[in-house]
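Our working data are protein records whose layout never changes between entries. The record below serves as our worked example for the rest of this section:
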Amino acid sequence: MRLSVVVVTHLGGDWLRGCLSALKEQLGPQDELLTVVSAEPGTADLRDLPAGEVLDLQANPRFAAAANAGIERARGKWILVLNDDTVPAPDFVEALLAAATEPGLYQPRILLADGSGRLDNAGHGLWPDGFNWARGREAPDGPAFEAPGQVGACSGAAFLIHREVIARVGAFDADLVAFGEDVDLSLRARRAGFPLRYVPQARIEHALGASHGRYGAEKVFWVERNRIRVALRSLPAAAVLTLPLWTGARLGLLAAARARGKGWSARVGPEAIPAALKGLAAGVACAPDALRKRAQDRGEWALGERAMWGHVWGNRVRWRELMR
């Protein structure tokens, strides 16, 4: 089988129906479409779904575990993982597959679904403490995002992955629960030598925050907790040893931006500050587990410390991006 598409839904409804309708027209007889319902019984609107098989988990284990259930069921050589609040352009699937010339992860151009012509992201950049930053977030789409190339990490909202990658490094780490699982999988794949590539010809719209919001305290908690786990598991030793310095610099820049009324840090409420502190504490508490997984992964690493640092630094988030 050429391709399996795994769409994870929490609420169902019109966004899911729009996503499945757009996909139905692009899939051939050798492809499969699977909707994974990650919701308590009766809470998701699953009426009149236009296409595909439904895997109803009868619970909400959150995104990572739900996506893994779909990936385990999938039979395709390539697996396309999508959020339910995405709507692919008519040539999306073929453009993505045409660029997928070797096993790896492939990131499309993700546009905001608000009609503004702005980007959700063109892949993620990295801060050396494990924090990721959506490249191009809310910037006007244009020539700056036309060139294909490597990215620091792929977005979990929409990415293509080869089965060989999963066989080597596994799927999502369900211990992350939510947020950051895409960066974790990306960096584990990169450590194992697989490419992380941006495919600008493959366009898809995303209703960012449709399910969980953009700037809530819960998201801040999971982002801070999980980026520590990601850093300890996959980043080069130089980044791990200097983690407090990088975190202090990042939080300082975000605080300065907030004081100026700039950036996403100015959009979160005061409850985000204690949430971030709780996330930091939770991340530190998870350090033994993350380091144990690092030791387990090491046998699959193809990139040494210098090469992995080159990946992080080559795809680094500039401080001006944090401040804008």
User: Anything to note?
Assistant: The chain has a mean pLDDT of 93. Residues 217-234 form the longest helix (18 residues). DSSP finds twelve helices and twelve strands in the chain.
